Amino acid sequence: MTRVAVIGTGAVGATVAAWLISDPTLDVMLCARTPFETLRVETPAGVLESRPRLLTDPAAAAPVDWALVVTKAYDAVGAQAWLDRLVGEGTRVAVLQNGVEHRARFPAIAAERLVPVIVDIPAERSAPGIVVQRRTGGMIVPAGGSGEGFAALFANGPIDVRTTGDWTTAAWRKLAVNCAGAVNALTLKPAGIAADEEVAELMRGLVRECIAVGRAVGADLPDTLADEVVAGYRAGPADSINSIHADRLAGRPTEADARNGVIARLGAAHGIDAPLNRMADVLIRAA
Ligand SMILES: NC(=O)C1=CN([C@@H]2O[C@H](COP(=O)(O)OP(=O)(O)OC[C@H]3O[C@@H](n4cnc5c(N)ncnc54)[C@H](OP(=O)(O)O)[C@@H]3O)[C@@H](O)[C@H]2O)C=CC1
Ligand SMILES: CC(C)(CO)C(=O)C(=O)O
After folding, report:
1. Is Oxidoreductase there in the keyword field (predicted)?
2. Given strand 26-31, what is the order of strands in its sheet?
């Protein structure tokens, strides 16, 4: 049996864990900060409920075949404490997070063992272990042996895992969606706020900066992406809450640096100014 550890059991971690647990060919262990007994995920295909095996102390963990990091980007140090115990010879580490710096967050993990995962699975957590998965969604990983291995973990479930030969472009496309979500974190209003044309124009501005910086680091991004992002927000459920908005509602730290600050930081390194993203980063962190 393939041994899988899921580090972080919030909105996405709980969703992914519930699907993995439903596959009898996998041996799944949850590595949680806040323990719970029942994992209950309302998925588009019905409710998945289980009583998972769960650890709360990294010292109790032993090496596995796959360690999936599904904490927020700002909890990388805590996740690394688990990896120190979970990674043995042959272990592969998948980082399921937003942003474009998956590898940089885990410098102790050898590049060939680490699979950076772009996640498009909208999910919201209401209590420890209790999650609603809004859409089946999917994930994108780099083409190659480890990427295919990661995709194989989900082969018996509905979550679509694709490989790409151009991960940089895929990651910056996702960053374009996420940087625009700053308007939700700032206004504390769900996705429907994109219907307001003045707000939509700010979202396009955030994305245009993302396009310029993304191109400078090698991503192949079309000018139409800004309109596509706004159209995507308008097409989805008006009441859906993105993860940075959820962080603000819960009083947690936010991923403002990973989603907006990064555009200003990398932009500065390439001589490109990104004032809207810099402002979003500063204001969300200050709020
Ligand atoms: N939610 C969404 O719809 C989407 C989120 N993403 C991205 O996925 C990643 C995860 O987001 P999301 O699931 O929303 O985040 P959540 O805040 O819902 O969950 C993060 C989880 O990590 C846990 N955690 C933090 N530190 C540790 C630690 N040291 N050991 C064990 N667990 C720890 C938290 O514990 P505790 O339970 O104590 O809080 C929490 O359960 C982020 O990068 C996000 O941007 C991507 C696409 C969609
Ligand atoms: C785009 C979205 C809403 C879902 O994939 C997301 O990435 C998030 O909530 O952080």
Report:
1. yes
2. 53-55, 26-31, 2-7, 66-69, 92-96, 114-120, 138-142, 160-164
